[in-house]
Amino acid sequence: MKRISSGGAYEEKIGYSRAVVAGGMVYVSGCVGDGADVTAQCAAALATIERALAEAGSDFARVVRVTYMLPDAAEFEPCWPLLREAFGAHPPAATMIECGLIDPKYRIEIEVTAMLREAAEG
Questions:
Q1: pLDDT, tens digit, 9 for 90 and up, residues 14-56
Q2: How distant is the alpha carbon of residue 115 from its chain centre?
Q3: What is the pTM for the complete model shown?
Q4: Which residues contact 101 (CB under 8 A, 6 or more apart)?
Q5: Which of 28, 31, 44, 54 is closest to 112 using CA atoms?
Q6: 29 C-beta neighbours (distance < 10 Å), count
Q7: Is 34 within a domain?
Q8: Run of H or E residues at 94
């Protein structure tokens, strides 16, 4: 098992890993991002996820499951173009949940589960 940290403040405060690699899979914790609006935050969260996946030995094409969490479901649609760009021809199974996040300044949180490159190719 491999644990990946992004150095985020909440990882240390709460006690979790940005991602965990186990059993041929990568489990990326929910990611938020800084920005003035939901699309800027979505882009920042996707960048954090992309870095974690790369460090683990995976990428967006190998994501099998994604969960989007937003305090206001009406803000989800502006993110769709960014999500289509990230997942491209490899759309994962997905769920969107309307809920409170750890800090009211956050407009979206995204978590993913992906296969490792070796597991996907084998």
A1: 888 899 999 999 999 999 999 999 999 999 999 999 999 999 9
A2: 14
A3: 0.93
A4: 32, 69, 70, 71, 107, 109
A5: 28
A6: 22
A7: yes
A8: strand 93-98
Q: Is the dihedral of CA 95, 96, 99, 104 positive or negative?
A: positive
Grouping H, G, I as helix, E, B as strand and the rest as coil, residue 20 is strand
Q: Domain containing 57: what range?
A: 2-117
122 occurs within a structural domain: no
Domain harbouring 6, CATH code: 3.30.1330.40
Q: Which two tokens stand for residue 57?
A: 């030995």
CB 71 within 8 A of CB 99: yes
Per-residue tokens: 88: 């491209």
Q: 65 phi and psi, to 5 degrees?
A: -150, 135
Residue 114 host element (H or E): strand 109-115
Q: CA 60, CA 113: separation in Å to the nearest integer?
A: 10
Structural domains counted in the chain: 1
